[in-house]
Amino acid sequence: MTAGAAGLAAEPAGPGQSTGPVRPVRVGLIGAGRIGASHAAILARRVATVELAGVADAVPAAASRLAAQLGVKAFGSPAELIGSDEVEAVVIAASSTAHCELIVAAAGAGKAIFCEKPMSMTLEEADRALAAAADVPLQVGFNRRFDAGFAAARHVVATGGVGTPQLLRSLTRDPGLANPGAVPPWTIFTQTLIHDFDTLLWFNPDAEVVEVYATADALVAPEYKSAGLLDTAVTVLTFDNGARAVAEASFSATYGYDVRAEVFGSAGMVTVGDQAASSLTHFGPDGRRVNTVRGDVELFLDAYTAEFAEFANAVRAGREPAVTGRDARRALAVALACVESVTTNRPVTL
Amino acid sequence: MTAGAAGLAAEPAGPGQSTGPVRPVRVGLIGAGRIGASHAAILARRVATVELAGVADAVPAAASRLAAQLGVKAFGSPAELIGSDEVEAVVIAASSTAHCELIVAAAGAGKAIFCEKPMSMTLEEADRALAAAADVPLQVGFNRRFDAGFAAARHVVATGGVGTPQLLRSLTRDPGLANPGAVPPWTIFTQTLIHDFDTLLWFNPDAEVVEVYATADALVAPEYKSAGLLDTAVTVLTFDNGARAVAEASFSATYGYDVRAEVFGSAGMVTVGDQAASSLTHFGPDGRRVNTVRGDVELFLDAYTAEFAEFANAVRAGREPAVTGRDARRALAVALACVESVTTNRPVTL
Amino acid sequence: MTAGAAGLAAEPAGPGQSTGPVRPVRVGLIGAGRIGASHAAILARRVATVELAGVADAVPAAASRLAAQLGVKAFGSPAELIGSDEVEAVVIAASSTAHCELIVAAAGAGKAIFCEKPMSMTLEEADRALAAAADVPLQVGFNRRFDAGFAAARHVVATGGVGTPQLLRSLTRDPGLANPGAVPPWTIFTQTLIHDFDTLLWFNPDAEVVEVYATADALVAPEYKSAGLLDTAVTVLTFDNGARAVAEASFSATYGYDVRAEVFGSAGMVTVGDQAASSLTHFGPDGRRVNTVRGDVELFLDAYTAEFAEFANAVRAGREPAVTGRDARRALAVALACVESVTTNRPVTL
Amino acid sequence: MTAGAAGLAAEPAGPGQSTGPVRPVRVGLIGAGRIGASHAAILARRVATVELAGVADAVPAAASRLAAQLGVKAFGSPAELIGSDEVEAVVIAASSTAHCELIVAAAGAGKAIFCEKPMSMTLEEADRALAAAADVPLQVGFNRRFDAGFAAARHVVATGGVGTPQLLRSLTRDPGLANPGAVPPWTIFTQTLIHDFDTLLWFNPDAEVVEVYATADALVAPEYKSAGLLDTAVTVLTFDNGARAVAEASFSATYGYDVRAEVFGSAGMVTVGDQAASSLTHFGPDGRRVNTVRGDVELFLDAYTAEFAEFANAVRAGREPAVTGRDARRALAVALACVESVTTNRPVTL
């Protein structure tokens, strides 16, 4: 079940209340790489409240290829897509370094904006993006919030089901580091653990991070350590309500894509995250076996679908989406403090 | 993950292969009751390859109400919907007793047909429906086949992962019998266990049922036993490859909607079916707790979505859908043999 | 945890209440085969309230070998052991066909008796054993009752936690049929499923079995079918409170020793039985894997230990043990009705 | 299953090899508090290779009371017990501050020694105890090593099943802090997390801890923070093979006694630890529920039993036990470094 399932059941209005058909939101997608292509397929086939109007990429041939596969229009450039009347909303899945400029441009054109994480590379960029997008819907791609399990955990925490959070955990383990040479330094904090930081902030509502300790290493690809690539990291966050949180990441999970979280508090605990590919269990001479999910799209397909449905709903309702640019800025601040902690080998105060 | 997830990943065609956009299938839905309304919402919001053209019901006001909620057209009658040029395909979610006639009419109008289970009430009706629909796509609503776990189990079985099936199990436990007085006699076999019979036949490929034993009772609502309503049943199927299968059903599962299956064979076992509402586990003074799903739509939301996606794909490809009218006839034959077994308190040979 | 764990915690008496040391019960074991040797090792090393005084076997050399391994006395024959003053209580793990005579002899000598299941081969033998042992403690080896999970399930059922039982299940799957030629006909009912019948009777307190249907086959070793050996069986029990129970068995579980049970009732359900060898889960390229237990002694080591502790306690307290000869007779009656049902291919009334 | 189960199966010697009876080791227990009383009951009733010769306590009345309950001798003082010819081996479950002196005294009397953790309060004490006990068996009570799951995990790690360890985790959550005022400062590190440190060292063989970061707080009983009592702690260990380990503890687990561990490496992962009280699952209107264990004796009853069986075996075999005083010293060094890290709010190099 996705978080959207409840919505489906709840939505049908009562007799006499004519809600009318919802006109799909015409979305233009920028970025034809791995995650862009995945987003495009989801937008085109799984979200009936969205209509994929077209795609663009800094490399026009990449946009053309993806557009042809999906039978949609290829825009000549991101700027052309942003400027087009055929597009009401922009989904940004381009390179992270381009996010801030694209947000500013899209906001300038009055488009609603969905931007993949991280929203920006620096806090200055974050502030610029926030200022530019003050008057348009801006949602950031912290997709885990739309996973049924994570959403249920947050609901339990927010309604007091674990009491005051005291110990939290969030982890991300990726099945593989295809091309270590291409990964920028600090990626493990700003691209990967930023998901976990958002989760931990979301799971400890009304608390702020006051101190961060981080340690990291290149254990998977040690030959890239001198280039600054770190593939294994542990971080400890101290909140102003006394709670401590641990976020961990690795780029070498041989068993699949592993994302889990845990909130332990004064009245109980919730855990969330399951590596099982389905409810199937296979018993044989080697014991009891469950297939594990292999990638983010497989694990979070329903969550990706639900976050785009939320975006479409927010656009149509003219309201702020569930995950904001301010959320993105908070998570980035933690990630950057981790970078400083690794550099100085000291806890860093925020 | 749904069975559709793999499809999503697999689908993008290679470079140079322009697949083009798929024109959504214009579907008309007949039946505005509980499951009809659920199907309509799924067709309207979750399946981008389908366009819900409108709805009809034997009671026009019911159709109007549902149509208004979803912002689609209300046809004046099922016949009007079937005859309309705006409709390429018909989804039948009307009363079971009307299924056969609606199939015959829709096939006569050249429409592709998706019919909820049971396809018919008798084998004679089944033969009539099959004959009428010989030249149009006809899919029956055995939705469990589209659940990721059930599909994975079938794949393991079909590829030899459990060896020769020897002991099988399938069960359905429904959380509640809202209105026992309105349930026709033998419902537990022809409406509920028919799902399990299809599952068991599907999980034991190339084998035929040769004998059936069934026992049933009214334990939930004993006051309706005299009216023929049975709410608790156990059946044993003997296959021509020696395998035995047990199918069980009850209408009183206080803990939610429970659908599970198990295939034990000469080389191993698979089990499938999970009552968990999500990956959340909640720990407190009462121990470790997992919320359970409460209904078929909640448990099988992704499966329903996937079966309609399959239907749309089959219609566009002009091929036979994955679940056929012949499958429906086979499951019905087992259900009717169970009725005879209960009546005679003897094993019944097929 | 075993059922005995609670006992350990509960046992220490209050201040001033001198319970004194418990003199271990001097036990003689009859039967030096596989299960006898296992029982002897458990009695010698794991039950401090028992002292293994010696062993006997119909084949004296077998007794000598086992006795030497454990450093205990070898009696020259079962009769000599039964007659010895060094023995207060007899544990019978001999061939099933000898059980009745050994019970009669041991009871005649005034010994307390623990007898492996089945207590007897026929109801007449059962009555003879019961009459003979009227004045001595007589416990039968339904060890599952002492498993922590099964005991907890029974407690939940007995205290109303599932309401009125409506659908029950118990199954036994053994990892292998080492020597099919040596297995007597009907073994699957009188030796294997008799455990499940006891479980089902125990889990549906105050109800009696009124009808039995059984079907069985030789799917694992078809070449022995003509000799009457059946290795796969499904049985359905109908109780006088309307509940239906399914008991299943197979002799070919490639994945280990699998014993599970389920009680579904008007107010909920309990399931019990776990194939996991420990709490270890291993994640690797093939997914998530748990080692499974391979045999009855591995699965039920704590339960075997606890049943002998109960026996010693009952002997010292001079009270009836928790599992009686009458329990054994009830389970046997169901097993024999199953044999008749398979023979006649009809449900059999008890 | 306990780690002892495998031992039971493996132990019976082959034909002709007369192992003879093992004379139980006569053990004297020092310490009649909560854990001493529990150990005494286990030694008296569950370990057939041990004979509990008597008990002593710094408070003679406490010893008398416990001795009376178990029907064994009460020694007048620990010194009297240590000096007695009736005692071959001493189990020390006295106050931690007395451990070192008792070890020195028992070793001086030539007794074999089992000492609860921590073996000592300082590294100087540890060195003194090690020197004194150089010629007698000395085992320390890191009972988790004898839990079936932990033992299996260690076996997988040691045989390469996860590759090189990269990220480890161990946690202890205790259900309650009965009397916070009585808990010495730093208890969470030297008494509780010392178990986790031993586990982590054991799970990362051949590696040494080179740096430690710890953060801790009084979240459960903040009123005792000024007295130095910390009830919530997170620590990060960096090993010389690059692995990072997180150990966490809390004294307020409302859901029971929670001990888990995880080893993630270059080739896979193992997880271990289960809060389930048994294999029972209970389904009802509130969902699916599993009872959780409530205390260390309940969770580790089999492990405690197995560690005493190992001690008896080591004593009889005249060999070093499986958990040594050197292991205790290593874990203590980590705990003391954590204290320093909390005090200085800096990572501490070892």
**Overall tally of domains of chain A:** 2
Question: Structural class per helix/strand content of chain A?
Answer: alpha/beta
Strand arrangement within the widest β-sheet of chain A reads 12-11-7-10-9-8-15
Low-confidence stretches of chain A: 1-20
- Largest interface, counted by CB within 8 Å of the partner chain's CB: C-D, 62 and 63 residues
The best one-word shape of chain A is globular
CATH-assigned homologous superfamily of the largest domain in chain A: Dihydrodipicolinate Reductase, domain 2
As for the CATH topology of the largest domain in chain A, it is Dihydrodipicolinate Reductase, domain 2
Helix content of chain A: 25-40%
Please tally the β strands of chain A and state the result: 15
Mean pLDDT of chain A: 92
By oligomeric state, this entry counts as homotetramer
Would you kindly provide a written description of the structure presented here, covering whatever features stand out?
The structure is a homotetramer of 350-residue chains. Chain A is globular. In chain A, α2 crosses α9 (296-317), α6 packs antiparallel against α10 (325-344) and α8 (187-203) packs across α10. Chain A is α/β, with parallel strands linked by helices and 350 residues long. Chain A is built from ten helices and 15 strands. Chain A has helices at residues 3-10, 34-45, 60-70, 78-83, 99-108, 123-132, 148-158, 187-203, 296-317, 325-344, and strands at residues 25-30, 50-56, 73-74, 89-92, 112-115, 138-140, 165-173, 209-217, 232-239, 244-250, 258-265, 268-272, 281-284, 287-290, 348-349. The two termini of chain A are 38 Å apart. Chain A has two domains: 3-9 and 22-136, NAD(P)-binding Rossmann-like Domain (Rossmann fold); 145-300 and 330-349, Dihydrodipicolinate Reductase, domain 2. The B-C interface holds B 163-164, 166-167, 173, 211, 213, 215, 217, 219-220, 232, 234, 236, 238, 242-244, 246, 248, 250, 252-255, 258, 264, 266-269, 345-347 and C 163-164, 166-167, 173, 211, 213, 215, 217, 219-220, 232, 234, 236, 238, 242-244, 246, 248, 250, 252-255, 258, 264, 266-269, 345-347. Chains A, B, C, D: Residues 25-139 form the Gfo/Idh/MocA-like oxidoreductase N-terminal domain. Chains A, B, C, D: Residues 1-21 are annotated as: Disordered. Chains A, B, C, D: InterPro entries: Gfo/Idh/MocA-like_OxRdtase_C, Gfo/Idh/MocA-like_OxRdtase_N, NAD(P)-bd_dom_sf. Chains A, B, C, D: Keywords: Oxidoreductase.
